[in-house]
Amino acid sequence: MIPENQRKQVEAQIMESYTSMYRLAYTYVKNPDDAMDIVQESVCKAISSSGELRSKPALKSWLCRIVVNTALDFLRRRSRETVSEAPPEEGREDVYRDLDTLRALDVLDEKERTVIVLRFFEDLKLQDIADVTGDNLNTVKTILYRSLKKLKIQLTEGASAS
Amino acid sequence: MNENNLNETKELETLKREYESIPIPEGLEFRVRSSIAQAKNAENAENAQNTQSTQARESHPAKKHRYLRKVFGTCAAAMLTVVVLANSGAGVAHAMEQVPLLGLITKVVTFRTYEDQRGDTVSATINVPEVENGGELNDAIQAYTDTIIAEYEKDAASSEEYANDPDAPTAETNHYELNLDYTVATDNAALFALRFNKSVVMASGNESVKIYNVDKATGKILTLGDLFQSGSGYLDVLTKNIQAQMRTQMDADENVYYWLDDEVTDWNFTALDPNTAFYVNENGQLTIVFNEGDVAPMYMGVVEFTIPTNAISDIAVPGYLK
């Protein structure tokens, strides 16, 4: 049995962070429907495993880790199941603001993207990010440095092309 | 090098802005809440399953899955919140909540009480009122309470089937309780309003309100719009008034939070829904009632805003408000 108050804390954190969870998921799956599915699945996982949680301060990064893992599972499943599917960006994408700049993140591999998103968009501490990705602190720093370098190149190219 | 760093920062800011502008779909919060409820029930069923395996060492995976699916359905049903209001007549006399069920002007009696108890964990108490000379109000009450009873019976049946199974575990965590009670929210010379408070207790509670307002002279059920002159733009006036009240409350108390200037703009309260529950309070003032989660996070519960009559007296239909 999960102690009721622990589950309540997880619940409260979910209600506080679900928009972050959604945007984080969105950077992986790049369409609203799948991102919603990821969030939904992550919420279920978070509630049902809230008993495993040990430290409270890391609640948000713990949620992020669940989202990241769920999203990666989803992408792997999808790439196995549908090889030649049309890019998921098509469809309702046009009702939204142009998210072209975010596509710059595509130059990064999944782990690099996770580190960049969590560090700069979600303002997580490096140590918390290390918890999310399961790497040690120095590895995260290295990934961060490498990602920024990659990104800067990508962005510069994009800028010069326009 | 410095220049590079500058560029880098700027690009990151652009990226971050774009990231933050990823729109949040309207249904997301509901999905999140449903998932929380679902996960809790799944966990409860899981606990029951664990109890079973230690007690009997026999597992029934097929049964368990079927049960889980049912519980999920139950959850979704429980998430649907309802508010019914009925107003009749014109005037204001009683404080809500503690008004005796027999009003001075309009008699309300409990026509019947639907009570049900299944095992130790599943129960319902649904009071079905009848209003003397209620006319169409009674029809509306009947339809509303029938819906609630049907909802309960459907959910209870799946729980019961599970509980009666001799092989099934004792599902102590399988708690489901539905209560529906009513109070007279308004009873004055002009208006009568009957308020239903519905609470569904599963893993956590959910409360919702429905109020029927009836014009006593005509017996007609009133909508919010009926209280205002047509073309008066009352929704806009009410919206602005409520927004101002939200702001004042949030400034005064940091524990109070409404979706007003939230960064998730989709959720912000920008326009009052004409179907929002309302009643006229004992001072003759219009009071708007929002269900749990409508304009504020769930922890705020059902929230009410009283609109000062002088703010709307020029657009209100005379006779209802004071």
β-strand percent of chain A reads: under 5%
Report low-confidence residues of chain B grouped into runs of 5 or more. 1-6, 50-105
How does CATH name the architecture of the largest domain in chain A? Orthogonal Bundle
Write the H/E string of chain A, N to C: HHHHHHH
Query: What's the helical proportion of residues of chain A?
Result: over 70%
Order of helices and strands of chain B: HHHEEEHEEEHEEE
Which oligomeric form is depicted? heterodimer
Strand order of the largest sheet of chain B: 1-6-5-4-3-2
Number of helices of chain B: 5
Instruction: Report Rg of chain A.
Output: 17 Å
- Major protein interface: A-B, 39 and 36 residues
Q: How many distinct beta strands of chain B?
A: 9
Q: What structural class should be given to the helix and strand makeup of chain B?
A: alpha+beta
CATH superfamily of the largest domain in chain B: Fervidobacterium nodosum Rt17-B1 like
Binned, the helix content of chain B reads: 25-40%
Q: Over the alpha carbons, how many angstroms does the gyration radius of chain B reach?
A: 24 Å
Tally of separate domains of chain B: 2
Question: What do you see in this structure?
Answer:
The complex is a heterodimer of chains A (162) and B (322). Chain A has 2 domains: 1-96, Orthogonal Bundle (Rna Polymerase Sigma Factor, Chain: A); 98-162, Arc Repressor Mutant, subunit A (Orthogonal Bundle), CATH 1.10.10. With 162 residues, chain A is mainly α. Chain A is globular. In chain A, helix 3 runs parallel beside helix 6 (126-133) and helix 6 (126-133) packs across helix 7 (137-161). The longest helix of chain A has 26 residues, at 4-29. Chain A has helices spanning 4-29, 32-48, 59-81, 100-103, 110-121, 126-133, 137-161. Residues 88-97 of chain A have low confidence and may be disordered. Chain B is of the alpha+beta class. Chain B folds into 2 domains: 81-222, Heat Shock Protein 90 (2-Layer Sandwich), CATH 3.30.565; 227-322, Heat-shock cognate protein, ATPase (Actin, Chain A, domain 4), CATH 3.90.640.20. Helices cover 36% and strands 23% of the residues of chain B. Chain B has 5 helices and 9 strands, in the order H-H-H-E-E-E-H-E-E-E-H-E-E-E. Chain B has helices at 2-20, 28-56, 61-79, 136-164, 234-252, and strands at 84-87, 108-118, 122-131, 176-187, 191-201, 205-215, 277-280, 286-290, 303-307. The longest helix of chain B is centred in the first third of the chain and has 29 residues, at 28-56. Chain B starts with a helix and ends in a 15-residue tail after the last strand. The model of chain B is unreliable at 1-6 and 50-105 (pLDDT under 50). The interface between A and B is large, with 39 and 36 residues.
